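1st attempt posting a full record on here, be nice pls
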Amino acid sequence: MVKPLSLEKDNIINKGHGSAIIATNYLESYFDDKLLKNIEVKFRIAQKAAQMIPEKAVVILDSGTTVLQIAKLLNLKSDLVIITTSLIVAQALENTKNQLLVTGGELRKKSMSFVGYWATNAIESIQADIAFIGCDGFRSDGPCARSYRELEVKQRIITNSKKVVLVTDSSKLNIDGLYRFASFDQIDHLITDTNIKEQQFELISSNIEIIRV
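the predicted structure (as tokens):
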């Protein structure tokens, strides 16, 4: 959301002694590298997200480390139909008492998520009551992903869900994302933490409900 002013200031490159190296804002990290980052915040977000799920709902879980925390909490429920595009989320739910459906498709190893025709075709065949989506960053007009392979899957999830909830810790709001997958008016709720800046809150909240935990 914040416009880049300089490569170093916005963490696109890091200057060393006589050299510059590419920073990670625009490069996708592997799933394991992100798993424990801001873990306490992600758990609080997941707790709030789980409370929003109605009984006997059809739920879509996108990929992402925050969504993974939601999946773990859903092991405490038994009346849901859960569809996921994430191999890691599916593994977290392997002993669930809920009905679990995995889209399948081509596995992206960095995000451990399924993409491509099989994944999007599976999502098109259902109508979810609620979907939880992660993101890698933001622009002033919506959330973003770092891989274009993720775009169509996320867009199909949004189209085929009655309610769409974006879940992310506030650090992502400071990252200018690469590929926008939705506009803010396509998202019903954003669950984040209390470290969101006031100017960010005012800009986003004019379009969607923000829940700070």
